[in-house]
Amino acid sequence: MVNVVLCGGSGTRLWPLSRSLYPKQFIKLFDNKSLFQLTVLRNKEFAEKFIFVTNESHYFLALDQIEEIGLSMNNVEFILEPVGKNTAPAVAFASFMVEQDQLVLVSSADHYIKASNNYYESLKKAKELAKLDYIVTFGIKPTSPNTGYGYIKADGFNVLEFKEKPDLETAKRYIEDGNYFWNSGIFCFKAKTYLEELNLHEKEIFELSYTAWKNAKNCSPVRIKIDDMLKIESKSIDYAVAEKSKKLKIVPFDIDWNDLGSFDSLYEVLEKDQNGNTRNNSILINSKNNLIIEENSRTIGAIDVEDLIIVDTADALLISKKGSGQKVKDIVSMLKTKNSELTDAHLTVYRPWGNYTLLEQNRFYKIKKIVVKPQKRLSLQKHLHRSEHWIVVSGTAQVSVGDKEFILRPNESTYIKIGELHRLENPGKIDLVIIEAQVGEYVGEDDIIRVEDDFKRC
């Protein structure tokens, strides 16, 4: 079986933890592991191969996290999308890549699922049905009349009807009926079965997706071209295929499952103390049932509070009442109208060569800590509006400036003038750490002209 892991989504309801360049599936919330990593670890026992479909800006972040958990790259393929067009095209790209009789398990990288015997037994049943040319979806028995999920009415393994996200009274009727399941968004089928059904019910999406894949298939990783991607209609696998197909079956998932669509749902799955508080370094007095997440060294003190969401990151603080977590997306929308960088990245930003942390900035200068991994190097580049000063803190730096190349060691420095071609490399066996001071009339991240790049970035 091939596990197709869909890694899209920006997770705006988990801001400020989640940013567009560091979405919720990559946040390490569970014993220093991310939902993405837990998905791979949960499925690698029965998946002979993984295909990850992700935004191209998350490619190297995903690679790093795969490396951390020791997954062999011999069993991994990537499909990189320049923009998201929902799950129907994404699953089509992956289905084109495999043998047509190959069994495919489609799972999301941002769902919380606790692996158990019931989980694996449900997968075995789904494989049996998929071998008979059915498209199998997995249903979660509702625990509450939640209006944030789609519902599926079932009779045994037979799907009677799909229902979109209902209002509260309708959801209550579904619960009382007893034959409805939450739609998990997880599917199992033969590749050809899905493609045949997509071609039958959404022919244009099928044809445009095939053209896009064909134009990109000779790349490694497969990089879908932006012009091809923009032609494809954005539609989920549920709307495009599942709701219309006569080949649909359902297998109940008797498991701990949560799509972590808000801080309220995150609170449900995190460990809590005897007063119902989730916390790390907080000092709480007469306080209960609070979700508290600290992502920096600050200590949070709280007195006589309950049912609050408090999320503290290095550059943003969120405070909300529990039950209002869905409204976090409205804050993100307001930040976007102000063109705030707070929706895009944390102070620490990950790159294929390592990472950098913004220490201080002003209109005319910016100071960063840059970490370059061993045997990695930045692109050969220049800037039109800023000069740079580099000071080595630890490790060894190999520096190219103009036609000169030299080595810098701790407490040594160099200066790069505006417009001068330069490159930074770590030839050593430990991380290279430098402090970079940028000075100029414009210090935006887009003032980079790459001449040569190991990672094929523009």
From TrEMBL:
Which InterPro entries does this chain map to? GMPP_N, Man1P_GuaTrfase/Man6P_Isoase, Man6P_isomerase-2_C, ManC/GMP-like_b-helix, Mannose-6P_isomerase_type2, NTP_transferase_dom, Nucleotide-diphossugar_trans, RmlC-like_jellyroll
**Which keywords does the record carry?**
GTP-binding, Nucleotide-binding, Nucleotidyltransferase, Transferase
Looking at the record, the residues that make up the MannoseP isomerase/GMP-like beta-helix domain are 281-335
E.C. no: 2.7.7.13
The residues covered by the Mannose-6-phosphate isomerase type II C-terminal domain are: 339-453
Q: Which GO terms describe its molecular function?
A: GTP binding; mannose-1-phosphate guanylyltransferase (GTP) activity
What does the record give as the reaction this protein catalyses? alpha-D-mannose 1-phosphate + GTP + H(+) = GDP-alpha-D-mannose + diphosphate
Biological process, per Gene Ontology: GDP-mannose biosynthetic process; polysaccharide biosynthetic process
- Keyword Zinc in the entry? The reply is no
Residues in Nucleotidyl transferase domain copies: 3-274
List the Pfam families.
ManC_GMP_beta-helix (PF22640), MannoseP_isomer (PF01050), NTP_transferase (PF00483)
**EC primary class:** transferase
Taxonomically, the superkingdom here is: Bacteria
Q: Which family does it belong to?
A: Belongs to the mannose-6-phosphate isomerase type 2 family.
Q: What is this protein called?
A: mannose-1-phosphate guanylyltransferase
Record lineage = Bacteria, Pseudomonadati, Campylobacterota, Desulfurellia, Desulfurellales
